[in-house]
Amino acid sequence: QVQLVESGGGLVQAGGTLRLSCTASGSMYGIGSMDWYRQVPGQPRELVARITMNGITNYADSVKGRFTISRDNAKNTVYLQMNSLRPEDTAYYYCHAEGDKYVNFDDYWGQGTHVTVSS
Q1: d(CA 9, CA 28)
Q2: Which of 98, 57, 102, 95 shows the shortest CA–CA distance to 78?
Q3: How confident is the model over 41-81, as pLDDT tens digits?
Q4: CA angle at residue 16 from 75 to 61, to 5 degrees?
Q5: For residue 33, what is the enclosing H or E element?
Q6: Which residues contact 20 (CB under 8 A, 6 or more apart)?
Q7: What is the DSSP letter of 53?
């Protein structure tokens, strides 16, 4: 059973920087991509960034050039470096692990960490 724990959220002023971490416990067998999502109350959960086991990344248009996702497979940890933060980045941020769809069709979510960007 995979468990994900996020950390690093907090309050930051516009233009500031935060680094989120997501550490996975349990077996990572059958896990493919790792993702960061975010959600504002009343709005759909949004895919922010995705990284494959080989380091291929994908970003939402709203964060391109400002956020960087990275992965340390040896530590079972995924990071989201967030630079030039804007008030509209305020949300709960969730780590997500995807089954590889070959041997694992499940997916897993962390509990979330809140990011507040003040103007």
Answers
A1: 24
A2: 95
A3: 999 999 999 999 889 999 999 999 999 999 998 888 999 99
A4: 75
A5: strand 31-39
A6: 6, 7, 8, 9, 36, 79, 80, 82, 93, 95, 113, 115
A7: T
The distance of Cα 81 from the centroid of its chain, to the nearest Å, equals 9
DSSP 81: E
Q: Which tens digit of pLDDT belongs to each residue from 71-111?
A: 998 888 999 999 999 999 999 999 999 988 888 889 999 99
Q: How far is CA 18 from the centre of its chain?
A: 12
Closest CA to 12 of 72, 84, 78: 84
- CB within 8 A of 102, min separation 6: which ones? 30
Whether 48 contacts 36, CB under 8 Å: yes
CB of 8 closer than 8 Å to CB of 20? yes
DSSP state of 70: E
